[in-house]
Amino acid sequence: MVETKKVVIIGCGNVGMSYAYALLNQKTYVNELCLIDLNKERVEGEVMDLNHCLAFSPSTMKIEVGDYSCCRDADLIVIAAGANQKPGETRLDLLKKNASIFKGIIDNVMASGFNGIFMIATNPVDIMTYITQKYSGLPHHKVIGTGTSLDTARLRYLIGDKLKVDPANVHGYVIGEHGDSEFVPWSNVNVGLQKISDFLYEDDMKEIAEDVKNAAYEIINKKGATYYGIGMTLVKLTNAILGNEHAIAVVSNYDETNDVYIGLPAVLDGNGISRKIFFDLTKEEEKKLQNSINVIKENIRELFEWFWGHEPKSHLENHRLLNDVPKSNLKEDF
Ligand code: NAD
User: Over the Cα atoms of the chain, what is R_g?
Assistant: First the structure.
């Protein structure tokens, strides 16, 4: 009997559909795909279009328009739903909107009886992953964000391009917040077995790190949104989980000491995050990581202040407060 691996995508815009299309174009473990979006008509069109690829796809897949009942037996739910930042809107405005949207989504998913793994792509991804864990009450290892895995793919591409080496042979990560405070711990970057400092001057490293950080802004300026890169990233993470691959990826995972989700390397398998990878940082890199943690904490604090007019006092209170958020405080009027 063929084992069914079912994925539900919630949010079928640029990112959700790039992921779906990338899944169809590769050999993956997924053989059932269910699509949910507020815009049901669009999803109907997307499902028809995807089904027409099956004749040429390396995969066999049942693809259908879904509702929340299809989450019940899903192995993995990928969320790419949300509002995008509008001109003049602050980052906090976006966070309030997406935190409100997620309340409805996660409540619906959990009401279906879902007990699988969440993979979050919606921005600000570290905070949306944190919120998803609090809203759902699922264990931390089953709630994962894409973190800095796309940024890491960009880093490996840029180094590979500069050195004329296959990015697969570039070993290193972008870590921290998926945002402006992310950074490259260069002391851990290798090409093949050689230290990166054997190949690049400090100025080159600085330039590459800046290009990685600004890549999303540049793509958005030129074409309005970024989606192919994150689509492929999501396939890679999906395979690691559904294929029980024990693959290392730099995903948004839970840091208990600081009560934040943040992009750091971890091993992914059928249970989600099976363990974290610990590695040495220089004093300067440690400071950068702490700064990134502080940025995320400050965002969470601002969100709590907006929801309840006061700061969270403990991890447990965070959990209770996020579960009890009054409906009238959700920003659903957009
Ligand atoms: P988009 O506007 O094209 O798609 C968003 C979709 O969400 C829309 O189809 C909308 O109808 C749907 N939606 C909104 N509210 C919903 C709800 N309550 N239930 C179901 N569906 C709902 O946006 P996009 O370009 O696909 O981007 C999606 C998200 O992914 C954004 O937050 C973006 O910033 C983020 N993103 C993350 C990364 C990363 O590295 N993690 C990279 C690129 C984009």
Answer: 20
